[in-house]
Amino acid sequence: MRFGDVPTRGFYLSFATLTPIMCSHARLGLLGRLGFAVVASISPALTSGAKLASGQGTQRGAVLGGLGGAVVGGIIGDNNDKAGAGAAIGGAIGALGGAVMGNARDKEIQAQRQRQAYAHQQRIYAQTQQQSSQMQAAVSIGDVVNMSRSGLSEAVMVTQIQARGVQQQLQVSDIIFLHQQGVGERV
98-108 pLDDT, tens per residue? Predict the structure, then answer.
């Protein structure tokens, strides 16, 4: 008996185990033999595809590739009266090829998500740096006191506050402190 023959009581070779097929060869047509061959060739590919990579593309590729390969292999094998063998071989090769292509797609999607996450982190970092530099450039209460003590005019101090902004909103205690330090009311 050669690999892929569908005997009355025999075995199909599945890559993980030998699966007994108990059926009558006389009752099986081409579609029946293809069905058994598809199931025998796809089931190990599905479980191994799930173990190789957890991505949906890998599993979907294994299933679709295996089904397509089994159908094409069965049709080609039927020309040589070896539909079962052709379906099994085509299914296995199709499942493997589909899993490889699906895995590549999964990796591409993962890399794209990583690039998007990195770009998002960069935007947040840039915004944080911009806010930090704005806070450092803003005029503080100490800056106003120093400008006043240095003899700068109120117009210059107001221009600086308008151009650079302030680090914080003034509280009543801050206004009293500035007045005690000799800073004019206009500022």
Answer: 889 999 999 99
Confirm whether pTM is higher than 0.70: no
Among candidates 42, 97, 31, which has minimal Cα distance to 67?
42
Tell me the two tokens of residue 168: 């914080």
DSSP string, the chain: --TT---SEEEEE-SSSEEEEE--TTT--HHHHHHHHHHHHHHHHHHHHHHH---HHHHHHHHHHHHHHHHHHHHHHHTTT-HHHHHHHHHHHHHHHHHHHHHHHHHHHHHHHHHHHHHHHHHHHHHHHHHHHHHHHSBPHHHHHHHHHTT--HHHHHHHHHHH-BSSPPPHHHHHHHHHTT--TT-
Do the beta carbons of residue 37 and residue 70 sit within 8 Å?
A: yes
Structure tokens at 31: 């579609």
* 145's tokens: 């006191």
The position carrying tokens 């005997």 is: 7
Closest CA to 69 of 101, 43, 95: 95
Q: pLDDT (tens digit, 9 = 90+) per residue, 31-54?
A: 555 555 555 555 554 444 444 445
d(CA 86, CA 65): 14
d(CA 13, CA 18): 5
